[in-house]
Every structure is written in C-alpha cells, then in structure tokens.
C-alpha cells in the first residue's frame, strides 16, 4: 500500500512540475509586463506556444546530425528527471534517494553539455558563440552551486534533498551566516543558470548579447518546444530547491497544505524575479565572471566557515 | 596465484624477443598484438580472481646476489593488475587494426610487449630492486615507443624531456627506498613494512615518493613531459601511457605511502591535498588552451591525476586522525577514479587515433563534421567525453561523487591545515569538473560537429573493426561502471581493507542496486535508476510527440540569423571557443595577452589578433633548473680533460671525506 501511495505521489510530482513550469514562466512574464505598464500576454501563453510549436513541421538545417535531433529530448528528459527528484509538496518521495543534490546539479550539467554540443552541430558562428559563453558561465556557476550544496549538506549532515528539507523544516537550524551566504550565492547562480537578467536576457534576439538564445537559434517546432519546456522546468527546479532548503515551511500539514504553501512560494518567487528583472540592466558578458566569481567566493566562504565551526 | 601472472609476463618478454625477428613481416603485427592480447586477458582473469585472495609471494633466484627477486600478489597489486590488464587488452585489440597504418613496425613491435611486461612487473614487485628495475623497464620501453617516429618535428625533443624526467623520477624513488631500507635494512618490502622509520625520515621518504611517483603520474609542476611524450607515441601506446602508466605511478605512491611507511602524519594529507587540488585545476586549464587533440588529452590526464591525489590526500588525512572508515571512503574514491580514468582516457586516445588514421590530422582546428563521416567513432568518443566530464549516468560522476562524500564526512578534524585544505579542495574539484565539461564540449564539438574545415576532414572514412571493437568495449565499460558502481566498490573492498583496516559497506546487498557509501539517510545514488528514468522519459516523449503532435520534417539551409555564410572558416575554432575561459582564468594563470592590430583606414592589409600564453611552470621551475645545469656543466667542463693521476686523487679525496663524515656521525 505504501509503495502504491509512494508511486502515486511520485507520479503526481512529475506531472505537477510539468504543468507548473510553463505557468511559472508565464507568470514571470506577466509580472514584468505589468511592471512595464503593458497588458502582457496571458499567463497561459507559454502553453499555447508549446501547443503551436508541437504541431509544426521541423525545419532542420541541411548538415544537422543525429545529435542535433536527439539533444532536445535528452535535455528535456534529464531536466525532468532532475525536477522530479526535488521535494515540492512532499518530502521523502519514492525515488528521491536515487539521486542527491550533487547528482541533481550534475544532471543539469548533463543537460547543458547536450545543449552546448547541439549548438555546435550546425557549424554556425552563433552556435559557437553561445556554446563557448555558456560553458564559461557554467565553469563559474557550477562550482558555486556545488559549494552551496556542500555547505547545506554540512549543516544537515546529508546530501539527500529530502533529508535536508526535513532537517531545515523540523529542527532548530536558527539563523546562520553560512546559510545567508549560501542563499545569496544560490540566487546569483540561479539567475545565471536560467539565463535571466543580468547575466543573459531570455527575451532578447540581439545577436551579440545572447547566450542561451544563440544556442537554440537553429531549432524549430517540436525540438524548440522541448527546449523551451526544459528551460521552464529548470527555472521551476531552481525555485523549488531554494524554497525547500531556505524556506521549508508547509511540509508538516499534509499534502494539501504543502501544495498550497508550494504554490504560494512559486508565486512569490515569480513576483520577486519579475521585479528584479525590470529594475536592473543586463551586464556585458565579460562582467559576468565578476558577478559569478563573487557567488563562488561567497559560497566557498560559507563552506570554510562551517569547517571552522559547525555552528556558523 | 602469482606464478601464472609471472608466466604471463614471461610470455610478454618472449614476445619482445620474437617481435625483434618477425617485426618486418606481415604476420608480425598479428603475432605481437594477438599474443599481447592473450597474455593481458589471462593476466586480467588471474588478477580478478586474486582480488579477494590471501597474498601470495614468490622469490626468484635472479636480480641482486643473495637477495633474489621478490614478487607478491596482494589485493592492491591485484587491483592495479586489473587496471593494467584492461588497458592492455584494449590497446592490443585496437592495435590489431591501428597497427596496419604503422610506417616503421620494427620500431614499435619489439618494445610494445616489453612495455606491457614492465607495467605488470611494477605492480607485483616486492623488493626495491625489482621495483626499480621494472619501473625503469617501463620507462625505457615507453621511451623507445615515444621515439618510434623520431623524425617528426618535436618528437626528439619530447623524447629528450621524457628520458630526463623518467631518470629524475627513478632517482627520487631510489633515494626514497634507500631511506626506507635504512643503513642496515633489507631491500625487501616485507622488511620495510616491519621497520617503522622515525617521523623525519618517514616524511622525507613521503616527499621523495611524491616527487618520484608524482613526476611519472604527472602532478604539477612535474607534469611537463606528459603533453610532449604522450602524443608523440603511436595512439595505442599514448592510451597506455596516459591511461595505464600514470596509474602504475599512482600505485607506486599508494604502495609507499599507505603500505610501507606505516602510520601517516596529518600534514602529509595536507601536502597531498594541496598538490592534488592544484594539479586538477591547472591540468584542465592547460587542456582547455590546447587545440591538438592528443595534447589536450595528455594535459587532461594531469587533471585526473589531481582528482586521484585529492582522494588519496583525504585518505591520508583521515587515516592520521584514526578515522579508518573515512579513510577507506577516500581511498575507494581515488581507486575508483583510477579505474575510470584508465577506461575513458584509453577510449578517448583510441578515438583520436581513429581520427588520425582517417584524416592524418590531430589539430582540431583542421577537422570538423566527422560525426557524419565517422558516426561510430563519434558515438564512442562522445561516450568517453560524457564520462570524463563527470556527468551522470556514466562512471566519471560516481568517483567524483564519492570524493565529495569523503570531503563532507568530517568537518570537525582538529588540525587547521586540514580544515582549510579539505574545503578548498572541494572547491577546486568542483571547478575542475565544470572546466572539464567545457574542455570536452570543445574537444568533441570542434572535432566531430559542425562542418569540415579541410579537405581531409570532408573525405574521412570510418576506421576498421578492431579499433571500433576496442572503443565500443570501453564505452560499454564506462556505462557499466556508471550504472552498476556497487560492483566496482565491492571489488575495491579487499584493497581498502588491507590498507586502511576497514572498507566501506558492501554495496551489492543494497536494494535497487543503489550505492550507499556511509548510510542511507546521508547520501545515496542510483546510476541504474537515473539511467532508466532518462532513457524511458526521453523515449516516451519522442513516441508521444511523434504519435500525437507532429512528425513532419524538412531539410533547409541553416538559418544563422538570416546571414548564413557557406565558408567553414566562419565556424568557431578551438582557440575561439576557449577565448572566454582564457579571458577569465588565463590572465591570472597563464598571463595571457591578446594584441589586436587594426590596419589604419585606407590600408588593405589584414587585421591581426595575436595571443601570447606563458606557461608559469616552465618559467618558474624548468628554465632556471635548465640554465643552472647548463651553467654548472660549463664550469665543470675543465674536469673532463685531466690526467689519470688527478682523477685518482679525486677518488682518494672523496673516500677520505666520506670516512671523515662517517667518523664524525658516529
């Protein structure tokens, strides 16, 4: 019986993240539009875009290889699996032990690897520029992320995200310097990894400033839909991880309360992200290393503090 | 069980003699590589069966008089015999096809089995003399293989640097064993184990072992010969040198530091951690700057050696603090990475060799688009790239994951050196993992993806079946060790049991074939489930979309923002791909400078961009040493032309001084 319930919860989780991801993207866009005094498209617009893209014919570059065609599905599947391992409305998911937070970080790395390779497959200079900048950003963001994982794991005594969330929710963690450093660093990393302002601009098509968009320039129809959906899932994943580590309330009161709390957290995150994005300008690409380097240093400082004293 | 291993080695040495006779004939290649394949397979089987067996020893009446040659097969030797065996099987199988393109087989064939014999002998030697003899056999045979294409530009220089570094490493190990044996001791390892040297002597021996074994393995700053020598050899030998010989060097360090020296001091851990962390990051940064595929791989070996030494350093640090379980975890992570790196680095060198056969090029800026012309090689190479970039669900991730678990295990160690070194190494490990992914996006993307940059790349042909079999065998191993890591961890249990007194929990009983290195509430990973989830969800998505949405597809010219340029020169090259990373890290590490010269208006000359990269290690270590040596030899040159009377005078004076020193010492 417990197994069936576990499977059910895991299945609901997988469907839920898939449903909520485009909604979150739509909500962020809506918030940004309202802040710019535009009406903006409906929050359901990403769903309509996906539907439209899925129904279209793929226009594939003449020298595209199998890798280019397989990559969107790999990126989507990997991101989906990673998102399914994050506690959203329930901790202790049936399969959450199959990958810990380090594995989730590395899974996102796999998705990025596939994305960067696919960008180079056609042999256009935009693909190259996107891939080379993406790996440069990742070379700073990924270690920063791992350092945050290490500091959280040191506090909770585990790298399992479920255990961490339960530890953060149900024990007296208190205010800690290392957690504060970790949160700041995590937000910087999340902005960079999701190609948000100030690191990248998800709305731009000005060639020389794009990173993520340059990588997916050659994609169309169902392939593009998979990549867009994976990008939305990734945003949702980062918000969920921040929510369950740093704001772990709501897990105690049953699934309904936890789900309501989760939706509330997503809403707050969307509003905050929207406000942040309209109030700041995009950086030049070679300023990004300073921005991310600061995140790396903050997170490393957090880990060092924990090694110096377990109570920090 | 050691006698059959010695028989395999004897067979390899016999093949060396036979090869000298048949090298010129057509049959020679099949005899040598086929025979090596048989010997290596037998040796691998024996090693697998003796992993959990009690140590067996044998003494042969050869070598030093009154001492004999001691050989011993214990779990540590058996594990490294497995690594050597796997690498040799792959290389021999690959060479059955690849060797066909060899210009001068008589320069390669005799030395190849001798090299394999040397590799095997090092790991079973049980006294200092046999160890050093085998070590030098390995060095000299591989040197001969490096010099097999000695007329190609740069190879003679590579051979020269290699022989100097190999002698240096042998010298350091000789001194190390001298210290361990003491003034009265015996050179047998059994005797060394029984004697516990004083802390000062032990420390000196550890540093010498780190220098001696480290220079063979390629730790920074002693790595300079790797990127010169590994690429110069034929590709299957490059694979052996990078994938296996560096591991045999790691074996030398493990044998001395964990077995012969006795209880470690805590700051040995700090030293090894520092060396490992710096090696890992510098190695991958060097690799990123390269556009020669083989040199890139050789530099990347340096990074992986760094990761292995991080694991070893953790094991030493925990061992010094009487935390055997944690030490066992660190050692398991390091040895797992030894196996992983041997597999995927050999695979990648085989892939590079295949590209070399198909196009005659190693420079990735002259390749491109090979995924269309060599799809099978491209696929195997891609598996190697994913594995080496430490991405799940393949094997490279598992060993790095275990290393991270070891880093997290004990933040409460009392020593400040370790409190700083362990988290710093965590950061360096994370940095090197991310940079490795960048490096292999570059290696695969520039070489195999995009459009062909030259005629030869456009006309490439898929390679022979032997080469493909070797590559796919190793690719399958990468997947196997990634999704069933518990099997490998359990194989390592007797090794860590012998060296640290304990081992991490047995994994094969864990449900769903997960791995749980400490306890399930703390951390677990299941490569099999992750692999299945990804495969199933990707396939279901493809099916669902093709069934319910659309499956229409049309080929058209690339979009490229509306300005497609048909010339392949407009693609990113290796140098331009690495440019952002060069700007971020290179200014500090390599003091890179870029100068752009724009012609004045009206001038039709081309604009130029020049980049200058300086290697800090050459400038700080090697150049001063080289100029000091050359200065010294110039000064000592006068002593070359003295009379016999004076030489005898020198000998007498030396004798008197030594006797005086001994008298004062007593």
Q: In summary, what is this structure?
A:
The complex is a heterodimer of chains A (312) and B (666). Chain A has 312 residues and is mainly alpha-helical.
Defining traits:
heterodimer, A: 312 residues, mainly alpha, 11 helices, 70% helix, globular, B: 666 residues, two-stranded antiparallel ribbon, 25 helices, 5 strands, 4% strand
Structural write-up:
The complex is a heterodimer of chains A (312) and B (666). Chain A has 312 residues and is mainly alpha-helical. Chain A has eleven helices and one strand; from the N terminus they run ααβααααααααα. Chain A has helices at residues 2-35, 45-54, 66-84, 101-121, 125-156, 161-170, 177-193, 212-215, 221-246, 254-278, 288-308; one strand spanning 58-61. In chain A, helix 3 (66-84) runs parallel beside helix 9 and helix 7 runs antiparallel to helix 11. Chain B is mainly alpha-helical and 666 residues long. In chain B, the strands form two sheets. Chain B has a two-stranded antiparallel sheet with strand order 1-2. In chain B, strands 4-5 form a two-stranded antiparallel sheet. In chain B, helix 13 packs antiparallel against helix 14. Chains A and B meet through strand 1, helix 3, helix 4, helix 5 and helix 9 of A and helix 16, helix 17, helix 18, helix 22 and strand 3 of B.
Structural class of chain B comes to mainly alpha
The spatial strand order of the largest sheet of chain B comes to 1-2
Gyration radius of chain A, to the nearest Å? Answer: 19 Å
Output the structural class of chain A: mainly alpha
Would you list the SSEs of chain A in sequence order as H and E? HHEHHHHHHHHH
The number of helical elements of chain B comes to 25
Quaternary form: heterodimer
Q: Number of helical runs of chain A?
A: 11
Q: Biggest interface, and residues per chain?
A: A-B, 84 and 87 residues
What value does the average pLDDT of chain B take? 91
Q: How many beta-strand runs of chain A?
A: 1
Distance between the termini of chain B: 46 Å
User: Major beta sheet of chain A, specifics?
Assistant: none
Please outline the major beta sheet of chain B. Answer: 2 strands, antiparallel
Percent of residues of chain A in helical segments?
over 70%
Give the overall average pLDDT of chain A: 89
The general outline of chain B is globular
Detail the poorly predicted runs of chain B: none
Distance between the termini of chain A: 42 Å
């Amino acid at each position: 019986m417990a197994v069936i319930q576990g499977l059910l919860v895991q299945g609901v989780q997988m469907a839920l993240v898939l449903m909520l991801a485009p909604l979150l993207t739509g909500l962020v866009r809506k918030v940004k539009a309202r802040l710019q005094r535009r009406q903006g498209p409906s929050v359901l617009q990403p769903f309509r875009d996906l539907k439209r893209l899925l129904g279209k014919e793929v226009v594939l570059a003449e020298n595209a290889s199998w890798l280019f065609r397989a990559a969107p599905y790999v990126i989507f599947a990997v991101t989906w699996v990673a998102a399914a391992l994050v506690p959203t409305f329930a901790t202790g998911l049936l399969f959450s032990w199959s990958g810990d937070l380090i594995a989730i970080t590395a899974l996102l790395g796999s998705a990025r690897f596939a994305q960067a390779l696919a960008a180079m497959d056609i042999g256009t200079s935009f693909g190259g520029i996107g891939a080379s900048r993406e790996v440069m950003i990742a070379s700073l963001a990924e270690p920063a992320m791992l350092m945050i994982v290490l500091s959280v794991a040191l506090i909770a005594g585990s790298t399992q995200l479920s255990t961490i969330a339960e530890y953060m929710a149900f024990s007296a963690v208190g205010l800690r310097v290392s957690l504060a450093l970790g949160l700041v660093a995590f937000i910087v990393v999340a902005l960079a990894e999701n190609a948000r302002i100030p690191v990248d601009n998800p709305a731009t098509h000005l060639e020389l400033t794009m990173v993520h968009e340059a990588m997916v320039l050659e994609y169309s129809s169902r392939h593009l839909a998979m990549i867009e959906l994976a990008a939305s899932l990734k945003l949702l994943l980062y918000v969920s991880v921040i929510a369950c580590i740093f704001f772990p309330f709501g897990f105690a009161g049953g699934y309904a309360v936890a789900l309501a709390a989760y939706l509330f957290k997503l809403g707050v995150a969307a509003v905050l992200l929207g406000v942040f994005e309209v109030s700041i300008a995009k950086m030049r690409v070679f300023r990004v290393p300073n921005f991310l380097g600061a995140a790396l240093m903050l997170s490393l400082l957090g880990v060092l503090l924990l090694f110096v004293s377990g109570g920090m | 069980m050691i006698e059959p291993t010695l028989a395999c080695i004897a067979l390899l040495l016999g093949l060396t003699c036979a090869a000298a006779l048949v090298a010129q004939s057509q049959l020679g290649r099949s005899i040598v590589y086929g025979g090596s394949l048989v010997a290596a397979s037998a040796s691998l089987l024996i090693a697998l069966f003796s992993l959990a067996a009690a140590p067996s020893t044998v003494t042969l009446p050869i070598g030093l008089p009154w001492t004999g040659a001691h050989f011993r097969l214990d779990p540590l030797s058996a594990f490294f015999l497995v690594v050597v065996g796997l690498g040799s099987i792959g290389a021999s199988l690959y060479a059955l096809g690849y060797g066909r393109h060899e210009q001068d087989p008589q320069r390669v064939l005799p030395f190849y089995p001798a090299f394999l014999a040397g590799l095997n002998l090092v790991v079973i030697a049980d006294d200092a003399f046999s160890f050093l003899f085998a070590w030098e056999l390995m060095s000299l045979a591989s040197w001969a293989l490096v010099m097999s294409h000695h007329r190609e530009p740069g190879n003679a220089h590579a051979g020269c640097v290699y022989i100097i570094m190999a002698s240096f490493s042998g010298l350091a190990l000789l001194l190390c064993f001298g210290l361990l044996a003491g003034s009265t001791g015996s050179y047998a390892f059994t005797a060394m184990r029984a004697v516990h040297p004083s802390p000062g002597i032990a420390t000196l021996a550890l540093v010498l072992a780190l220098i001696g074994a480290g220079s063979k393995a390629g730790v920074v700053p002693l790595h300079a010969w790797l990127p010169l020598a590994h690429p110069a050899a034929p590709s299957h030998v490059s694979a052996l040198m990078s994938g296996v010989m560096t591991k045999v060097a790691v074996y030398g360090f493990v044998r001395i530091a964990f077995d012969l020296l006795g209880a470690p001091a805590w700051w040995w851990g700090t030293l090894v951690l520092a060396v490992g962390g710096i090696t890992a990051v510098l190695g991958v940064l060097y690799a990123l700057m390269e556009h020669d595929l083989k040199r890139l791989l050789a530099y990347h070996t340096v990074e992986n050696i760094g990761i292995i030494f991080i694991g070893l350093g953790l094991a030493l640090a925990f061992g010094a603090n009487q935390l055997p379980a944690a030490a066992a975890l660190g050692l398991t992570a390091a040895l797992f990475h030894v196996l992983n790196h041997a597999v995927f680095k050999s695979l990648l060198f085989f892939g590079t060799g295949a590209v070399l056969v198909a196009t005659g090029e190693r420079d990735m800026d002259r390749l491109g688009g090979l995924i269309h012309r060599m799809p099978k090689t491209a696929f195997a190479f891609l598996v190697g790239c994913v594995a080496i970039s430490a991405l799940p669900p393949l094997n490279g991730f598992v060993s790095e994951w275990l290393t991270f678990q070891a880093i997290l295990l004990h933040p409460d160690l009392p020593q400040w050196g370790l409190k700083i070194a362990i988290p710093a190494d965590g950061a360096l490990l994370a940095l090197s993992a991310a940079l490795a992914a960048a490096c292999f996006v570059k290696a695969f993307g520039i070489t195999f993806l995009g459009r062909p940059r030259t005629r030869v790349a456009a006309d490439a042909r898929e390679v022979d079946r032997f080469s493909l079999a070797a590559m796919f065998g190793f690719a399958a191993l990468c997947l196997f060790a990634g999704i069933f890591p518990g099997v490998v961890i359990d194989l390592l249990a007797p090794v860590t049991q012998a060296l640290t007194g304990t081992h991490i929990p047995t994994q094969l009983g864990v449900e769903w074939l997960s791995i749980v290195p400490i306890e399930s509430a703390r951390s677990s990973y299941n490569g099999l489930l992750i692999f299945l989830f990804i495969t199933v969800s990707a396939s279901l998505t493809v099916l669902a979309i093709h069934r319910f949405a659309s499956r229409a597809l049309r080929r058209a010219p690339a979009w490229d923002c509306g300005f497609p340029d048909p010339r392949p020169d407009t693609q990113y090259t290796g140098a331009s791909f690495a440019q952002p990373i060069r700007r971020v890290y290179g200014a500090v590490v390599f003091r890179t400078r870029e100068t752009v010269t724009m012609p004045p208006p009206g001038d039709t000359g081309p604009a130029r961009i020049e980049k200058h990269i300086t290697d800090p290690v050459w400038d700080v270590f090697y150049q001063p040493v080289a100029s000091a040596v050359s200065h010294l030899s110039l000064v000592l040159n006068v002593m070359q032309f003295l009379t016999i009377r004076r030489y005898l005078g020198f000998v007498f004076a030396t004798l008197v001084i030594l006797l005086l020193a001994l008298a004062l010492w007593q």
